[in-house]
């Protein structure tokens, strides 16, 4: 089970940190990632991290503003978001991925949380 939290309404330029608590050992997945879906748009990859090696990958739209990290002791994935923009408004989901997870494609991720809403105005 994946449970996201930390979503909120913030002003542009603000910061938020999202959390994703996993019920099991997150190292069992090759990758864990954050995705988002805005109203009327397809779900898109935001950031992903190789759970054992630590390599991370970001969508161009968030690179330099967002940072993905994990705490193995807490089985928790994080997404630190700064300099938020109105276009970051979306439901944000965490997910577990297979070997191709670095590509940030929905198809490479098979288990999803329920999401947490981020609204930037």
Q: Helix segment count?
A: 0
What's the SSE pattern?
EEEEEEEEEEE
Based on helices, strands and strand pairing, what is the structural class?
mainly beta
In percent terms, what proportion of residues is strand? over 45%
- Count the E strands: 11
Distance between the termini: 31 Å
Gyration radius (Cα, Å) is: 13 Å
Q: Which regions contain 5 or more consecutive residues with pLDDT less than 50? A: none
- Helical coverage, percent range: under 10%
Main sheet summary: 7 strands, mixed
Identify the overall geometry: globular
Mean pLDDT comes to: 96
Describe the structure.
By secondary structure, the chain is an all-beta fold. It is 0% helix and 49% strand. It is built from no helices and 11 strands. It has strands at residues 2-5, 9-10, 16-22, 31-37, 44-50, 56-58, 66-71, 76-81, 90-97, 109-112, 116-120. The strands form 2 sheets. Strands 2, 4, 5, 6, 9, 10 and 11 form a 7-stranded mixed β-sheet that branches. It is globular. It starts with a strand and ends with a strand.
